[in-house]
Amino acid sequence: MVSAATRRSLLKARAMDLITSAAILPLLFGCVGVFGLFKLLQWLRMRAYVRDAVVVITGATSGLGRECARVFSAAGARLVLCGRNAEALEELSRELAASPAAQVQAHKPHTVIFDLTDPGATVRAAAQILKCFGHVDVLINNAGISYRGTIVDTSLDVDKRVMETNYFGPVALTKALLPSMIRRRQGHIVAISSVQGRIGIPFRSAYAASKHATQAFFDCLRAEVEQHDIEVTVISPGYIHTSLSLNAITANGSTYGVTDETTAQGRSPAEVARDVLAAVGKKKKDVLLAGLAPTSAVYLRTLAPGLFFSLMASRARKERKSKHC
Ligand SMILES: NC(=O)c1ccc[n+]([C@@H]2O[C@H](COP(=O)([O-])OP(=O)(O)OC[C@H]3O[C@@H](n4cnc5c(N)ncnc54)[C@H](OP(=O)(O)O)[C@@H]3O)[C@@H](O)[C@H]2O)c1
Ligand SMILES: *[C@@H]1O[C@H](CO)[C@@H](O)[C@H](O)[C@H]1NC(C)=O
């Protein structure tokens, strides 16, 4: 004998079964399907945007620039590789020309050698870059140099050199290529900045200043060129495992020559390069590629500046003690 209450609960359970099988599951699959389709379409659009695009990469001889060259080449872009080290550029160019993607698309990369701290050479290089494929679709301002030292001991020449490489160089190159982009009503300018373009860390003054300037310049540019259908993307990564720390300059202009622990534990440049490709493909305007701690620091600087400043001061005291500088 089954009681009325048990029968009612049995009925309820059966009804629930019916709902989950008849409505929830298809709905769930539907959502996943729509999401998957959306992602696939986004991916296809991204691929189409980069395929055959003329992409110029500065600082392609090392670290993030070199990995960007590999990633954009694999995505079918036509590359113009820039740097000062001709041999390293040629070697990379040969590697990319021999890669499977290049076999299919037959795009041999071009190389343009110049020093970003020389404005005349940069303007001449821009003309050479335009001649490679007749136009530029994407300019990736990636080349850069870092710095270590106390402000009180640092010669002004060092401040200027960092600023010339990280700020005036990209600005000169961008200005030289911009008129042709405006004429075509098409183009995309990317600046590789840094978390240090958002916050100032002790003993990195010249570098942080150059990256803050970069962020501001390209934010202004974005607003000005929107009417010409030109995209501007500023990317601010946290530490990446490259030669940046090794190549950094010190207070007297000598090469630092040490890979700091923070850099050694940074993200792989290949991984960051894939994020750069995604940011470009999705036409992102501003991307912070950093973990929880640096991201929190960026927000803290805006929301609780007093707390941020005392944290930086205590960091400076600690570092000064450990390095006796
Ligand atoms: N590594 C990090 O932790 C990190 C974090 C955030 C942002 N970033 C940024 O990422 C970008 C790439 O740096 P990376 O980490 O890949 O460092 P990297 O391995 O030292 O590479 C720097 C590149 O810049 C080029 N370069 C330097 N000075 C130049 C000059 N005067 N003229 C022309 N090219 C010059 C170098 O090429 P040549 O020597 O052949 O000229 C090299 O290819 C930089 O803008 C850097 O600020 C790096
Ligand atoms: C520059 O400073 C470094 C220490 O940071 C020192 O080893 C080097 O001798 C100095 N070079 C010159 C030319 O003063």
TrEMBL record:
What are the record keywords, sorted?
Membrane, NAD, NADP, Oxidoreductase, Transmembrane, Transmembrane helix
What CDD domains does UniProt report for this protein, alphabetically?
11beta-HSD1_like_SDR_c
Q: Iron as a keyword?
A: no
Q: Name one GO cellular component term.
A: cytoplasm
Listed transmembrane segments: 18-41
Which GO BP terms apply? lipid metabolic process
User: What is the protein's known function?
Assistant: Putative oxidoreductase.
Name the UniProt record assigns to this protein: Dehydrogenase/reductase SDR family member 7B
What gene name is given for the protein in this entry? Answer: DHRS7B
